[in-house]
User: What shape does this take?
Amino acid sequence: MQSITLDVNGRKQAVAVDPSTPLLYVLRDFLNLRGPRFGCGLGQCGACTVILDGKATRSCITPVSSVKDRAIVTLEGLGSSTKPHPIQQAFIDEQAAQCGYCINGMIMTAKAFLDGHPDANEDDVRQALAENLCRCGTHPRIIAAVMRAAQEA
Assistant: This one.
C-alpha cells in the first residue's frame, strides 16, 4: 500500500492503495464516485472514461500511480442535478440515454473533444465518439446531444 494524493474534481484526496490499482477502482471504491463505470476492463468500450489533464482517458487501464498530481474530472465534476453542465443538459434535452450505461463515457469523451474543437461538425463528433460503445442504439440521439451542446456553447 502507498498513499497517493489525487486531484479529483478540484479536490485533493489521499488514498492508500496499491500503486498498480486501476484509477477506476479508486474512483468508485475509495472515493464513491459512480459516474465512471466498469464495462470491458480493457479500455475498449469507454464506460470508464474520465478527463485527465483535459484529455479523455480510460480509467480502467490507467494505474492510479500515473495520475498523482494530475487534474482528474469525473462526471460528478461537470455539474449537478440542479445545475447540470451544458453538455449534460443537452443529453437530457435530446433524451440521449436509454439504459444509460454508456452515457458517462459519451459525455466525458464529448466534453474533452468539444473543449478542443468547439466548431466541430457532425462527422467530427461521430469520429470522436467512434470508440465509445452503446449497445442500446441511441447513437443518433447522442450525436444530436453533442451537436446541440456544440451549438449552444
